[in-house]
Amino acid sequence: MKIIPPKPFMIEKGNRAVLLLHGFTGNTNDVKRLGRYLAERNYTVHAPLYKGHGGDPVTLIQTNPVEWWNSVLEGYDELKNRGYDEIAVAGVSLGGIFSLKLGEERPTKAIVAMSAPALAKSIDSLQERIIDYTIKYKKLAGTFDEQSDHPLEIAEKYRMPALEYLQGMINETSEKLQTIQTPVHILRGLRDDDYYCESADLIYNSVKSRIKSVKSFINSGHILTLDQEKELVFEEIFRFFEGLKWNEEKMNISQIS
């Protein structure tokens, strides 16, 4: 079976811009429905695809978190270059911690962090994500073999050297959360691992934003944008953005230059 790889997407509507960030081993399909929901309500949305994501596992393990982060910055700069002065960011899982990192390093209108990791986590648990991704990809491609594709064999063959660096990046971002003062809305699914629910509390208690809040979804797991309460999640994010005071005038790059 031929797999059609996901792509970055941009939907230009209104002058309010939102950068949408997917998770580790995920892709832009994680946030595509959210993007359409916001675009239908006059928001411009852009979702970059992290380098190495959305394709075969060999390509994924040959990339590293710095390259994924650079994909985020390129997405942010793309909106800036198109004249959007105020940019909000919303991300799920790794995209959630990347959203917070962006808030630490670049001007952001607001941040929505969904199921964001903010505590120390074992490298083995991250490696399990690679194993799951590889098995799912092989099954989708029709190349999965019960004998040769045992999880232990996959763990040995598809080991990602950069996972320790990824955990370090998460830790570093968490240590700087107190520098964030822009509005922050933290979303979590109560059917997710306790690790992510505890991370939500850490994020809330650490950021110095005057406007900050936590919302829990009782019947949702990790990827809130794809789970059974996704429509409620979309509405929650929309209401949060609607409550902000936006500058409705889009900058004209040609006039500036």
TrEMBL record:
Pfam families linked:
Hydrolase_4 (PF12146)
Write the record's keywords in alphabetical order, separated by commas: Hydrolase
What domain of life does the UniProt record list for this protein's source? Bacteria
GO MF term set: hydrolase activity
Q: What SUPFAM superfamilies is this protein classified in?
A: alpha/beta-Hydrolases
The protein's organism comes out as Ureibacillus aquaedulcis
The answer to keyword Hydrolase applying to this record is yes
Full protein name: Alpha/beta hydrolase
Stretch forming the signal peptide: none
